[in-house]
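Readers outside the structure-tokenisation community will struggle with the description of the input data as it stands. What matters is that the chain and its backbone geometry are given together, residue for residue. For illustration, here is how one protein appears when written out as sequence plus structure tokens:

…
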Amino acid sequence: MKNYLIAAFLLMIAVSPVWADPEWKASLSVSEEYNDNVKEERHGEDDFVTSVRPGLSYRHEGARTLLESSYRGTWNHYASGSRDQEFNHDAMLHGLLDAWEGFFFLDLRDTYRLVNQDRTRGEVVEEDSTVDQLQQNIFTFSPYITPRFGERGQAKAGYAYSNIWYDEDDRESKNIHRGFVDGEYELSGQTALLSGYSYTQELWEDETLDRNIFYLGGRYAYAENGVVYLKAGPQHTRYRDRDTSSSSLFWDAGLDHDFGTVLLHLNTGVSFEDDPDTGETYERRFGTLRLTKTWSRTTASVYSTLEEYEDRSNEGEDGEEVRRTLLGMSLSHELSERLTASMGLIHDFQDRSDDDTRRWYANLGLNYALSERMGLGCWYRFKDSSSDDEEEEYQVNRVGVQLTMTF
């Protein structure tokens, strides 16, 4: 069914009139890296890793249509056979069709990417190894309407179907059905009232889950370059087969401010995440902060993420709770018109009921522009993992060089 929806959707966009010129970008990278602990073990073995990374992106926008896609593949070959060769993919397809005069829309999105097998480890750290990771595909199709109520009121109401699956046969897939309505009423040019309701049904092999969320809130543009918003309300989740349920507070709040050379982003909320390891849906409560400063030749960022994951599937019993704290910084500086240096540091602390794990990530890099379309880069990457679990005690050092061409 998913393939038929994608084909039909792309056909509707293809026959839609008034297209703009498409935007294509392509790249190809070849790298060689020495890794002194390929499998990330206490006494791991080293190896040389050859990687080939093709990339392609496409964007086409018309009066009533939008089609955008991106792809990056990574083929890894281990010279000594310490690991099987890999071919991993990071792909995105998104299409939006204005099917009827700015009132009825069709939205389709498909993503295929590497994720951590343990969802409580958060998002994959960029350029981390693929140990304990797997490919996840999320397909979503959503028809919706956007009625207006006078000059100040508007709403978005519709249905969304999602399918989640993994490239390993022993991982459970899920079908998710969601109906939603979100409303907004402008009190002034700076202030708006927000409200909404959603009903979600998740189905997988062992369970059916029903979730209801209702929220009220507001948005306020307190300055020309600053906006703050808040949504909050009750949520109730019921597990049909287990005959259990739970209720808690739902919220989604954020602040964005542009100080000119400094950007501030704050966000906190509740989300519901699929865990490949257990097949369960975790309730995730999170807060994020990012501060970015730009100078003429330098860009620096500091950021932090606080997360708490909880399994609420067993009423009356203590479900698994995992807390995660991440602190990081990144720095990029143009040493010359052609040469750029970069560095990054991350501290990731995962607090489980039975063990704690601390991970440090550090990287140094240089990139030199050989020409307008060709660049040469080199790097050093370090990872340290310490834990109550001896299997999570290890260090990794990686040194590599890469040639990149863009087309």
Observations:
- The first helix runs from residue 2 to 14.
